[in-house]
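## retry 2 of 3
previous attempt timed out at serialization; input unchanged, resubmitting
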Amino acid sequence: MTETETVQVEATGETVGEAKWAALRELERLRPGIDKAAVQFQVVSEGERGLLGVGYAPARVIASVEASAVSDEPEAVDESELAEEVRDVLEHILTAIGVSARIEIVEDDETVTASLVGRELGLVIGKHGQTIDAIQYLANAIVWRGRGDDRKAVVVDAAGYRARREASLSTLAKRSAERAVSSGRSVELEPMTAVERKVVHVQLKDVPGVVTRSEGTEPNRFVVIDPV
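## retry succeeded, writing output
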């Protein structure tokens, strides 16, 4: 088999997302270790439900990938049951929104971190991280539904977004705190997600001369930095 050969499968489902999911699974069966980020989808038909359920036509997609596009992650990965469930949930979400990405999971005593690797991850991140925060919230809600209180936080990252955004927020928090102290006036920051507001609160928790609080209602809730 040459490196330029393309592996192609066709699959159907009730929705385009389900058809993509089925096609991806078939590619994985044919080529174990295939790089999901390299898979390309062509929607042949979006399907039709028909009137009163009559005349149903399934959605149909074609998935293709170069035979040489094999993931460099280890093939034998000993993941916990929790990590496997997180992976499964994220694969369903990514397929539903039409994004191909490799999922790398690292687990410790407190956190399960799922990092997405691939192209065009801007769709996953969204404006100000709203989409990736929603995906993270949904993953936590699904994984921990019906389980006990002894939980590990599920963190979803994409292309190193979390580290970049946290560094940016930390710098913003420090500069805003300095401005609040020097002016003697409260400083209001732009609306942020709950995850981002927590970064600011933690960053300024032990900074002398200021206290922080959240004001407003979602999705326009923001942090206020008050001088003491």
